[in-house]
Structure formats: structure tokens, C-alpha cells
Amino acid sequence: MIDLSQGEPFAHILCWVDGSDEACRAAELAAYLAQSLGAKLSYVAVGARIGRDEGFEVYAQIEGVSQPIPPFLKGNTHACLEQAMSIAAKMGISGAERLIESGDEVMAVCNAARAQDADLVVIRKRKSTLIERLQGAAASDTLANRCGFAVLSVG
Q: What predicted TM-score, i.e. pTM, was given to this entire model?
């Protein structure tokens, strides 16, 4: 339970954007919440790492390209992330951040929230499978219980 009597309850809100319509709506809600609380706002998307083959490594060395390839965002994730940043800008939220992580989705969001010192994670409400419910492995449960964050699941 969060004690709201000790001043500002949330100073930094992190919203997980996965490209779904629900996540895009959650991103908009996160912006309204950040604006009303005067909180910092970050959006995180989780993509897949694309490996480099040996031929590319040789080419990169010749050309002096040493930057890692950013994670690949599937489906509408990039568009949803851009829409979220646009909404935040239109609302006058300065300093909203866009983060792109890779790996297991829930743990990547957990690690991003820790690295950003977020105190609230906003996610879309997902339907969990029977196995996830039996294991208590829903994304909101994992973020709240294993990662220790307050989670607002928007559906």
C-alpha cells in the first residue's frame, strides 16, 4: 500500500509501450498522470537484439563503425512510442525520455525502471494464460512482486 500523506506519491513514471492499441492508450494516460503529478515521464519499448555476422564485423571495422545495433522493435511499437512522445510534448511535459531495451520483456522493463529510479510503472492490461495465473507470472505481478514497483495496469 502506498502512503499518499507523505507529499508527492510518484516523482517518476515509466510507461511500457509495446505497440498494442492498449499500450498506446496507457501511454496517453501516463502522460496525463505525469502532468497532473508534476512527475518525470519515461517511455520504454523492448525490442530484439539483432546479431552481426562476421562479414558485417569486417565491414564495420574497415568503416570504423563501432556503435552497437539498436534493438529491433516489432510491429507498431516504434509508431506507438513516437505517438507517446508526441502526446507528452503537446501536453508540455519537458524532458520525457524514450528508452529502448532488449531481452525478456518484463525483466527489461524492471531493469529500466530501476535504472531510471521510477516509482510507478504503467503497463497495458494483458490477458494472462492459465499457466501464468497459476504461476503468478503475469507482467503486473512480476513487476510488483519481484521487482518491487507500484504498477498501474490500464485496460
A: 0.77
- Superfamily of 10-154 according to CATH: HUPs (3.40.50.620)
Which residue type occupies 98? R
Q: Which of 10, 7, 46, 6 is nearest to 121 (CA)?
A: 10
* Cβ-Cβ contacts under 8 Å for 63 (sequence gap 6 or more): none
- Residue 154: CA count within 13 A, CB half-sphere: 21
What burial class does residue 91 get, using C-beta atoms within 10 Å of its C-beta: 0-12 exposed, 13-18 middle, 19+ buried?
Answer: middle
Q: Of 55, 153, 41, whose CA–CA distance to 99 is shortest?
A: 41
Taking only the tens place, the pLDDT of each residue in 69-107 is 677 888 899 999 999 999 999 999 989 999 999 888 888
Average pLDDT over residues 46-67: 72
Q: What totals of helices (H) and strands (E) does the chain contain, helices first? A: 6, 5
Q: Domain limits of the chain? A: 10-154
pLDDT digits (tens, 9 = 90+) for 59-79: 777 777 666 667 788 889 999
